[in-house]
Amino acid sequence: MGSRQIAQETFDEAVQENISEFEMEPEEAVREAVQQFEAQGVDLSNIVKAVRPPASENGQRQKHQILLTLDSLSRAVAQQDLAELPQLLSSFTAQCKEQFAFRSLAARSGAYAVVLSACQLPGAHRDLLLQALSSLCALLDGQPDLLDSAGQELLLRCLRERQEDAEVTLEVTLEVMLEVTLGALRCLRHACLKHEGNRQGFAKAGVLPLLTGAILRHGGSADVVREAAAALRVMTFDDDIRVPFGHAHDHAKMIVLENDGLRVLIEAAKAFPDNPGVLSELCATLSRLSVRNEFCQDIVDLGGLDLMVTLLAECMEHPDVVRQALGAIRAIAGNDDVKDAIVAAGATELIVLALSQHLGNAQICEQGCAALCMLALRKPEHCSVIVEGGGALAALQAMRAHPRQGAVQRQACMLIRNLVSRRRALSQPLLEMGAESLISEARAAHRDCEDVARAALRDLGCPVELQELWTGQGANLAQ
């Protein structure tokens, strides 16, 4: 993808030029314009790649459909036309969801202020607020920079509302209140993805207890529990490349220590024993909260390990669930005492089974190898259990199945190294399985596997060719 960008107007003019001067059909004109700009290194991800409607009879240029909808929505908001707004908000939301380019064009044309005003209309009933929140959510998807202090306060206010504070009438029902909470949670998640400033702003404003509180208040709603857990997880991300140091670790500690987040999440899981989607989301969030040794032990003590093992045993046919459960086991295995509990719970066999049944899934192979790697680390007694249970063979099969996936190759190499570093007697069985050639291939194909592959070969007792690196100071260092 290119790094240069152009205005929508520039692209539209190029398309019209292809039609008028080169007599191209509309679809061909758009396709040619796309090829032309991409060849110049232009990023077109924010460009609507369609023919703009022709000029009207008076020569006035027409707008793209989403901007026409936005104009109508803006007028309805300004006039507080509560009769027209529902349909306009619904149309605008649908168009924003079609593709990023549509909502990007709308955002550049002032859509955020219009939609936020729709959320704040005096006298508007909750159904209209729900629709406006849906529009805001669609607009914020991939555009978290749009959110301002007024938008932040709106979302916080929606999450603060309590059932006992509201008058239940025909217009204001418990179901609508739940949906408003759900809409606010979705908006918050989009606003915090890849935006450290928004995360810190929400955390300072007290959003974390509101998120755990939403799970406690609406514990019977699968959608709310899933969205609130996802929002908590996003608060622990460190994905904003514009910020050198984020507060991901601090937010995770606040969720656990100040808001009893581990207990809230694990207790919530008990209400959804047959809902893999909710359970996998809870597992994913628990893995993000396993940032301290004691937190890993707390998860086990509260029943979190039982949840993960049950998920693996009963949801093996759901790849997303398996991946999240493996990731959670990998995370809590950072605690050496927890490693023992995981092996004692029979998770090793389930991890190997997951690898075998989902051998074609690179993400599951990566997480499965990583989980076994953690269980073997500093635990030589676990290494024999893993090898005898087929873990080493499954890892090597994963390497064969995904030769181009560097993450899979790296985790498998690390697992093999951990298995033999303190149990050299296991080297020969692994060599007989073909470990040396697979590791050598990974080392040659993936630069980021060089260190772990070399260490695995060395601990297997294989000859390792040393490389010489120029230091810039006239000396060569053997690696």
Topology:
Layout: H1 8-22, H2 26-39, H3 65-78, H4 85-98, H5 100-108, H6 111-119, H7 126-140, H8 149-160, H9 174-192, H10 196-204, H11 207-217, H12 222-234, H13 248-258, H14 261-269, H15 276-289, H16 293-301, H17 304-314, H18 319-332, H19 336-344, H20 347-357, H21 362-376, H22 380-388, H23 391-401, H24 406-421, H25 427-432, H26 435-445, H27 450-460, E1 468-470, E2 476-478
Helix pairs in contact: 1-2, 3-4, 3-6, 4-5, 4-7, 6-7, 7-9, 8-9, 9-12, 11-12, 12-15, 14-15, 15-17, 15-18, 17-18, 18-21, 20-21, 20-23, 21-23, 21-24, 22-24, 23-24, 24-26, 24-27, 26-27
ARM repeats: 303-347
Keywords: Repeat
Protein name: ARMC6 protein
Outline the structure in words.
- The protein has 479 residues and is mostly helical.
- Among the domains are: 1-53, no CATH class; 346-463, Alpha Horseshoe (Leucine-rich Repeat Variant), CATH 1.25.10.10.
- 67% of the residues lie in helices and 1% in strands.
- It is built from 27 helices and 2 strands.
- It has helices at residues 8-22, 26-39, 65-78, 85-98, 100-108, 111-119, 126-140, 149-160, 174-192, 196-204, 207-217, 222-234, 248-258, 261-269, 276-289, 293-301, 304-314, 319-332, 336-344, 347-357, 362-376, 380-388, 391-401, 406-421, 427-432, 435-445, 450-460; strands at residues 468-470, 476-478.
- The chain has a two-stranded antiparallel ribbon with strand order 1-2.
- Strand 1 (468-470) and strand 2 (476-478) form a beta hairpin.
- Helix 15 crosses helix 17 and helix 22 (380-388) crosses helix 24.
- The longest helix has 19 residues, at 174-192.
- Mean pLDDT is 91; it is low at 163-171 and 468-479.
